[in-house]
Amino acid sequence: MPEDLPTGEALWARWALLAAVGATTEDEQRRSGYRTGVWIDAEGLHYDDAGCTWWTLSRMGEGRFVLYGEDESSDVKWHKPPIDMLTGGPEWLPYDELRDRLEGNELGCVYWYEHGTWARAPYPADLRDDGLDCGMSDFVDRARALSDLSDRVDGSTDGPSADTLLAAAEAHRLEPGQLLERLRPTGPDGEPLDLPAVARALALAGLTVPAAAP
Fold first, then answer.
1. Which run of H or of E encompasses 162?
2. Residue 128: how many CB atoms within 10 A of its CB?
């Protein structure tokens, strides 16, 4: 439901921060269609579990976001009569991309955010699940996002807590150096942390404090 989502800015910040801390130069060089996990690129934020769930969140201008994707639990694209997921959508949605996805039967739902409010096409009363809860829970639930970030923070070093870092990202006032100094030197897979890639992802996400003018 639209009211179950945090603000577009908060959703972007949590998702982007988790994407950034796992960024690698090797993954940056892969096309989106060949990537899995959580990442950011010029198109926006992505999540793909290499199975039956994928989501994209894109910024569409100041205060505007579009969230689209699917989870296997979605009843939308199989509903009879068919549901037009683009009904009521504003003119700024990426219609070419969304219609291509619809034609390929790859889309489970579409949400858009403007004027501080999420919206979507109306659903019939008998539709119970559009897949959003399963696919987006790691980012919608701040406690889950914080837990995932905490797993990447090195508890043996001094500095801001994971909660403080997440709050700074949500305010788009994150100091990159503070985050980079607090991260574990290796990722969950044991690979060394790719600090330049993390820094680039943070900059692309727009979560950091603007550089001071010379």
1. helix 162-170
2. 8
pLDDT in tens, 182-197: 998 887 777 788 899 9
Give 88's contacts (C-beta < 8 A, 6+ positions apart): 119, 120, 121, 122
Q: Is 139 helix (H, G, I), strand (E, B) or coil?
A: helix
φ, ψ (nearest 5 deg) of residue 176: -55, -40
Q: What are the pLDDT digits (tens) for 141-158? A: 999 999 999 999 988 878
Sheet harboring 109-114: ordered strands across? 37-41, 44-48, 53-59, 65-71, 109-114, 117-120
- Could you tell me if residue 85 is left (phi over 0), alpha (psi between -120 and 50 degrees) or otherwise beta? alpha
Rounded Cα gap, residues 116 and 206, in angstroms: 19
Phi, psi of 107 (to 5 degrees): -115, 135
Residue recorded with tokens 């003119």: 91
